User: What shape does this take?
Amino acid sequence: MLNFSLHIPTKIIFGKGEVGRTGEIVREHAKKVLVVTGRSSTKKTGALDKVIKSLEGAGVGFVVFDQVEPNPRAETVDRGGQMARDENCDLILALGGGSAMDAAKAIATVAISGRPIHEYIRGNKTGLWKELQPVKEALPVITIPTLAATGSEANSNAVITNWETKEKAGVSGPALFPRVAILDPELTYTVPAHYTADGAVDIFAHLYEGYMTGDENADVQDELTEGLMRNVVKYAKPALENPEDDHARAHLIWTSTLALIGLTSAGREGSNPVHKIEHTLSAFYDISHGRGIAVLTPAYFRQIIRKDRPQRLARLGRQVFQVKHEDDLEACDATIEAVQEWFKEIGTLDTLKNLGIKQEALKVMAEETIRVGGLGHNFLAATHPLTADEVLHLYEEVFE
Ligand code: NZQ
Ligand code: ZN
Assistant: This one.
């Protein structure tokens, strides 16, 4: 196991109905909050009403910023940051999926510095992010996830897109760890089937990225990872069949938090190439992050991992999908088949063409992936340095 330093400062409050305690929890940290949420779901489901009622009951002042779109945009973040400044808010309260939570963290950053968030986006053309990362100062953030997927509720990352330059990448730093994350599985009952499934794939990917690319001598992390993978595979289907299955929803949201809180990546130093290859897709075509990951995963396993680290893919198959083959390459093929079968069952087996992506854009997207995701290098970190041609080859395999 490699040396590591791990600091997980977010207090986690978990349980059905806990959203009702929002006001009392927030009151310990703030007098007036900016509630950052998406454009429609939290109004339709009643989640926003629950939060507002609880804030009012506790005498916490608030204003609502309900302009966050999926794949949140830099200009939206800048408007939210200005609103937090104008309204003298002292905390940002995120209510929603990864998009609302990421936007909230970015707004917390802009609210303090007054600088446009684009300057902080890693890999942006101006290179200013090199001075501004990691983010050291931001308003405090509290998160209330309504979708099990990103783990943004308890980590220090935000993924923001500059829509003009098509740069989607992370903003991160210790100041962005939420103070508290309120995980109320009941808020996720209303997540539609396709986002439930995309979220499950995203959780699975947060687990396999480091497992495939990082140091291989971290047994504790490997077993934690495999246990969490088994849970996401086990509970995605029940949540789809019965959206109000509390046991399944509770396990999915808790798995999403644990998958990207730093526990499984500590001591491994892995990378996240599939995420970077996907982020270009959602930056260019505004697709669902988890769906893009689902499309790319089988090709990534086949073209990269089966060649570079067949023993890891074989192990994943044996530990998570009951693959029995003793030969590693045969086990790899059976694992890829099992993963595709799971994607089919939950409805995420897809193609780039079907998601509206144009063949003529593949080359430029591959090049942009290296430029933005390579962070100044002409390759993407993975089991070996990936070139733009290799990224293009991945896109081509899953095009139709
Ligand atoms: O937009 P609204 O109206 O809020 O509706 C959302 C959205 O349309 C809806 N939704 C959320 N909760 C719901 C619900 N609908 C009904 N009932 C509920 N309870 O679902 C749609 C998708 O929401 P979104 O927040 O976009 O999804 P997700 O949680 O998958 O977040 C995706 C974003 O997070 C980034 C992605 O790149 C993407 O921008 N990521 C953030 C990470 C992080 N901060 O650590 C890591 C991830 O790898 C990822 O990159
Ligand atoms: Zn992800």
Remarks:
- Strands lie at 11-14, 32-38, 61-68, 91-96, 141-145, 157-162, 167-172, 180-183.
